[in-house]
Amino acid sequence: MIGRLKGKIDDISGNTLVLDVGGVGYVVMAGARTMGAVGVVGEAASLYIETIVREDAITLYGFADKAEQHWFKTLTTVQGVGPKVAISILSACTPDQLALAIGAKDSAILTRADGVGPKLAQRIVMELKDIKIAAPVSDISVATPTKKAKIANDAVLPTNMAEDAVSALVNLGYGRSEAYQAVSTIMAKGEAADISSLITQSLKVMAA
What is the domain range of residue 28? Predict the structure, then answer.
């Protein structure tokens, strides 16, 4: 099993490169982010490798960083997402964008990738939503020993308040992931006394 390759780039063509390692040329497929990061022909490169074995072929997929490699492995656990589709998604979205999209249940972002329609995008979100890569809005803590919301009579905020705030912001025309990130920021501070305050402060975060 190949875990990593270090060598000199011998050739680049589309989403494939040939990496010369000690005189042996390894053909490696990679997404747009990795292809943009490795450099040009003749330069040294180091790639994390995932080896996919099929009955008719052995294919090497390369990644410039472990975050992208992790997402490749995670995405390919979803029914209907093969290596090529996973690479397409990683070409359209950064690891941070993917984590945010899954946490925000924002399947629309995934449809940016070639070969990913609305149904597959929704399946990816649903199958990965419980993986600990990004906490869903409903899991955001609103009252912990160190971060407790400032509410009269020490009442705990409704557990669905964050989701309601995100929905309200989406109805105002903001993207779901953008709204999710802003609401997460305010909820983490524990300063929103009610949903109106949460929405107002989230709007300020997005306007900053």
Answer: 1-64
